């Protein structure tokens, strides 16, 4: 297997930091599953955009007389959750589809389930948690309608994100179980180290390209 230069995230040349990951859907992902992985990638992008819109909503909330804690936490969630979600669940499912790795699929199910729960909490909108959700937005409409309208945008986006993420989790799980995956298989991979062996990954990828049905 030839050496590959990291290309993600794509950074401008004047930035001295270098990309941390290699990502190429056409090269890494078998053709039947390429669209599925791309959709999960777009879901990750949607998650980041929602956090940006939430930051704008919390800024409007602050200007309208809300707590500065919400705005501060909104900044923290954007800085923390955007890269962490990419590393913790998207890279896991990317590797899972790339090499038919049960270990990475299990890692995805664990971390992505946590994000689904988090999206539901964000959509609910508990005041003081740094998110514009239904509780916070509806309660603020009586104080300032303009601010309430701005807060409504991230609220709707968090709700849509929770629904889409839940459906995506079900689809990937159905595909995984339909392909014969199990917790025992993941444990076996972890104990033998097969999940990080590049030659085993290449063999599994070749098999997956011809045998596993499309996930979505």
UniProtKB/TrEMBL annotation:
Coiled-coil ranges (or none): none
Membrane topology: Multi-pass membrane protein
InterPro entries assigned to the protein according to its UniProt record, in alphabetical order: SCAMP
Gene: LOC116947425
Main location class: membrane
Protein name: Secretory carrier-associated membrane protein
Gene Ontology cellular-component terms listed: recycling endosome membrane; trans-Golgi network membrane
Pfam families assigned to the protein according to its UniProt record, in alphabetical order: SCAMP
Ranges annotated as spanning the membrane: 41-63, 69-93, 105-125, 145-170
Superkingdom per UniProt: Eukaryota
Keyword annotations from UniProtKB, A to Z: Membrane, Transmembrane, Transmembrane helix, Transport
Family: Belongs to the SCAMP family.
The organism of origin for this protein: Petromyzon marinus (Sea lamprey)
BP-aspect Gene Ontology terms: protein transport
